[in-house]
C-alpha cells in the first residue's frame, strides 16, 4: 500500500525507528563500540580474517523449498529374527490342547477358511411422515334494520333463527354418523377410526333392505348403501350417469352480483331520460361456499408388498336440512312468486371412482431383449409412517333483515343481503418414487367426507295501508349443493398372494445382506429395469384423509311494504322485493394414489369397505317473530327526511348494507353500524 511506503519514509527522516538487517548483525558495529584498550587482553588470531582464508561452500540465493528424502526401510537393514522358538511354543500349545480332549475341526473344510468379509448392505434413510391439520371457521352476523317511512316500527327478535338452526343440526346427525370423528396423529387412533367405520358399515350391511327409506313425510330422501357402484353418480339417493353442473343451478344474485368489466367502448353512457319511480330491495342473495381438494401421492410405487393386513375404507355422508316456509300478504300474493312456485333446490351428489395409473404415451418402448434388475438400492424407515390430511371447514352466517320500505318518487336500490363467505383449502402431496415398497406391518387407507348444509329461509312479506299490489316478489329460488368425490388410483385390481422371494427380500434387508434376492430378478413387474429402488417400512403405514364441511345460513327476512304518500305523483311506481336466491355450497374431492402399478402383494387379510349415506330433511317451521326489547339492533338504518321527495331536487338513492365478505376469518358484525340520511 502507498500509505505504508510514505510512513516508512517519514519514519526514516524523523528517526522514530531504525531498521537493521540480519546481515548487519553479523558484523561489528564500529560506530557504537570502542576498540580494545592497550592494557586489554590479547585476542587470538582468527583464521576468517586472514588473507589465506578460503571456503569451499557455494553461496546460493534463498530457496523456500524443502527437499526431503525418506530413509531406507529395506528388510536387509533390519535385525535378524529367530523363528525357532516361536515354532516350538506353538507345538507346545497344540499338545496341551490335545491333552484336554477338545474336538478340533477337520482341516480342509471350506467353512474353516475365511478369505474376505462380505460387505454389508448400505441402507439409506427413507422419507418421513406428513401430517396436516386445517381448520377454517367463518362467522358472520348481518342482521339489518331499515325503515324508509316516518312511522315507528319496532325491530324484531331474531334469536329464534339460531334456535331453529341448532335444532336442524341435531336432526342432521342421523345422516352423518362420521361427523364426530376426532383428529388423531397416532396409529392406535387411526386404527380406532378404521374399526368404527368398518363396524358401522357391517351393521348397515346387515340391516340394509331396499336402500331407500322414508320414515317421515318431511324426509326427501334417506339413502344408504355399502356397495356403491364405480363411476356412477348418486344424486339424492338415485344412481345417474351424468354429473349435474353447478353453474346450471346457481341462482341469480341480482343486486349482489359482482360488477362486470366495462367495455372498451367510447360510446357515452350518459342517460338523459328522466328517472322513474322504482324500489328494488334485495335482502337475500347470500353465498356460502366450502371447497376442499386433496391429492395424495405419499409414496409413488409400482409394486407394493404388505406383510400384514390391508384396511381400506371409503365413506361419504351428506345431509341437508332447510326450511323455506314463506308468508306473503294476500294483497301481494297475486303479483308475487310464492315459495311453492319457486322453491329451494337441494342436491346431495356423491361419486366413487377407481382406476389404475396409465403411463404416458410418450414413454420409451420396451426393448425386445428381456432385461431384469441385478442390483438394488434400499431405503429403510424404522417404525410407523403416517400421511394424514385433516380438513375441517365451518360457516355460521345469519342475515336476518327487518325492513319497512316504500316508494319515494325516484329510483331507490336497497341491498341488505348479498353476503359472501368462502372457505378454500387445497392440498397436494408429491412423494418420492420407488420401484418396490415393502411394509412390515399393516396398512390403513381411510378416506372420509362429511357434508352438512343447513338453511333457514322463512320470510315474511307484508302490506301496510292502502297499497297498490304492484310488486314483484321473489322469496325462494335457494340452492343447497353438496358434492363429494373419492377417487382411488392403483387399487382397482385384485390383491395377489405374497411370493416367497418377497419374504426373502425382507429378511435380506433386515440382515443387511448386500446380495439382492434372486426372485426379484425374475419378477415380470420389473422387466426392463437395470436396478431397483426399494423402500422398506418396518412398522405400519396409515394414509388417512378426512374432510368435514358444515355450512349454516340463516336468512329470515321480514319486509313490510308501506303505502307511499305520493302515489298520486307516481302512478307507475314499480317495486321488486327479493328475499331468496341464497346458495349454500359444499364441494370436496379426494384423489388418493395408492399405487402407480397394478400389483399389490398381501400376506395378511384384506378388509375393504365403502359406504354412502345421503339424507335430506325439509322442515315446515311456523315460528312467528316477536318484537325485540329495547336493545339496539346490530344495524339501524333510519330515514328521517320529511321533505317532499316530489321536488325537482330529489335524487336517486342507493343503500348498500350487505356485500360483507368473509374469507376464512371471523367477522362478529357488519362494518356499518348506523346510517342516517
From TrEMBL:
Domain of life: Bacteria
UniProt biased composition (Polar residues): 265-278
Region feature Disordered, mapped onto this chain: 253-278
Protein's recorded name: Type I secretion protein
Organism this protein belongs to: Rhizobium leguminosarum
Amino acid at each position: 500500500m502507498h500509505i505504508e511506503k510514505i510512513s516508512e519514509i517519514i519514519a526514516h527522516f524523523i528517526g522514530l525507528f531504525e531498521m537493521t538487517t540480519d546481515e548487519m548483525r553479523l558484523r561489528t558495529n564500529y560506530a557504537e563500540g570502542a576498540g580494545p584498550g592497550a592494557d586489554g587482553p590479547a585476542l587470538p588470531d582468527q583464521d576468517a580474517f586472514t588473507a589465506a582464508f578460503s571456503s569451499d561452500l557455494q553461496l546460493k540465493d534463498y530457496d523456500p523449498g524443502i527437499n526431503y528424502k525418506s530413509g531406507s526401510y529395506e528388510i536387509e537393514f533390519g535385525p535378524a529374527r529367530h523363528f525357532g522358538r516361536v515354532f516350538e511354543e506353538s507345538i507346545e500349545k497344540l499338545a496341551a490342547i490335545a491333552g484336554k480332549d477338545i474336538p478340533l475341526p477337520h482341516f480342509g473344510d471350506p467353512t474353516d477358511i475365511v478369505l474376505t468379509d462380505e460387505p454389508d448392505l448400505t441402507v439409506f434413510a427413507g422419507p418421513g411422515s406428513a401430517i396436516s391439520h386445517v381448520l377454517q371457521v367463518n362467522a358472520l352476523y348481518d342482521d339489518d334494520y331499515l325503515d324508509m317511512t316516518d312511522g315507528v316500527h319496532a325491530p324484531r327478535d331474531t334469536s329464534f333463527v339460531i334456535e331453529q338452526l341448532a335444532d336442524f343440526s341435531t336432526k342432521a346427525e342421523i345422516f352423518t354418523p362420521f361427523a364426530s370423528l376426532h383428529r388423531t396423529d397416532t396409529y392406535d387412533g387411526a386404527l380406532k377410526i378404521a374399526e368404527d367405520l368398518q363396524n358401522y358399515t357391517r351393521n348397515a350391511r346387515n340391516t340394509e333392505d331396499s336402500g331407500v327409506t322414508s320414515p317421515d313425510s318431511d324426509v326427501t330422501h334417506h339413502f344408504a348403501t355399502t356397495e356403491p357402484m364405480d363411476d356412477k353418480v348418486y344424486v339424492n339417493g338415485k344412481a345417474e350417469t351424468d354429473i349435474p353442473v353447478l353453474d346450471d343451478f346457481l341462482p341469480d344474485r341480482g343486486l349482489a352480483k359482482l360488477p362486470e368489466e366495462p367495455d372498451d367502448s367510447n360510446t357515452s353512457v350518459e342517460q338523459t331520460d328522466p328517472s322513474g319511480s322504482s324500489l328494488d330491495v334485495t335482502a337475500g342473495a347470500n353465498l356460502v361456499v366450502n371447497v376442499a381438494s386433496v391429492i395424495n401421492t405419499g409414496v409413488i410405487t409400482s409394486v407394493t408388498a404388505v406383510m400384514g393386513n390391508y384396511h381400506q375404507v371409503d365413506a361419504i355422508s351428506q345431509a341437508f336440512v332447510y326450511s323455506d316456509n314463506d308468508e306473503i300478504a294476500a294483497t301481494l300474493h297475486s303479483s308475487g312468486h310464492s315459495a311453492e312456485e319457486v322453491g329451494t333446490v337441494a342436491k346431495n351428489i356423491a361419486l366413487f371412482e377407481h382406476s389404475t395409473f396409465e403411463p404416458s404415451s410418450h414413454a420409451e418402448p420396451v426393448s425386445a431383449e428381456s432385461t431384469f434388475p441385478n442390483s438394488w438400492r434400499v431405503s429403510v424407515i424404522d417404525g410407523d409412517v403416517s400421511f394424514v390430511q385433516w380438513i375441517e371447514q365451518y360457516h355460521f352466517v345469519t342475515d336476518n333483515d327487518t325492513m319497512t320500505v316504500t316508494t319515494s318518487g325516484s329510483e331507490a336500490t336497497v341491498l341488505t343481503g348479498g353476503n359472501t363467505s368462502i372457505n378454500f383449502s387445497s392440498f397436494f402431496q408429491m412423494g418420492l418414487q420407488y420401484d418396490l415398497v415393502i411394509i412390515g406391518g399393516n396398512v390403513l387407507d381411510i378416506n372420509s367426507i362429511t357434508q352438512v348444509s343447513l338453511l333457514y329461509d322463512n320470510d315474511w312479506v307484508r302490506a301496510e295501508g292502502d297499497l297498490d299490489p304492484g310488486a314483484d316478489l321473489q322469496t325462494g329460488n335457494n340452492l343447497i349443493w353438496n358434492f363429494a368425490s373419492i377417487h382411488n388410483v392403483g387399487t382397482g385390481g385384485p390383491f395377489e398372494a405374497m411370493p416367497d422371494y418377497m419374504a426373502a427380500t425382507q429378511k435380506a434387508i433386515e440382515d443387511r445382506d448386500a446380495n439382492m434376492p434372486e426372485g426379484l430378478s425374475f419378477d415380470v413387474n420389473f422387466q426392463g429395469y437395470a436396478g431397483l429402488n426399494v423402500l422398506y417400512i418396518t412398522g405400519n403405514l396409515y394414509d388417512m384423509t378426512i374432510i368435514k364441511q358444515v355450512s349454516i345460513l340463516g336468512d329470515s327476512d321480514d319486509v313490510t311494504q308501506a303505502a307511499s304518500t305520493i302515489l298520486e305523483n307516481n302512478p307507475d311506481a314499480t317495486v321488486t322485493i327479493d328475499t331468496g336466491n341464497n346458495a349454500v355450497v359444499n364441494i370436496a374431492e379426494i384423489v388418493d394414489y395408492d399405487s402407480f402399478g397394478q400389483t399389490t402383494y398381501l400376506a395378511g387379510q384384506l378388509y375393504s369397505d365403502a359406504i354412502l349415506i345421503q339424507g335430506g330433511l325439509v322442515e315446515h317451521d311456523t315460528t312467528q317473530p316477536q318484537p325485540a326489547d329495547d336493545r339496539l339492533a346490530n344495524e339501524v338504518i333510519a330515514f328521517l327526511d320529511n321533505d317532499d321527495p316530489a321536488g325537482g331536487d330529489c335524487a336517486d338513492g342507493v343503500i348498500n348494507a350487505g356485500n360483507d365478505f368473509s374469507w376464512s376469518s371471523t367477522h362478529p358484525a357488519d362494518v356499518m353500524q348506523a346510517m342516517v340520511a
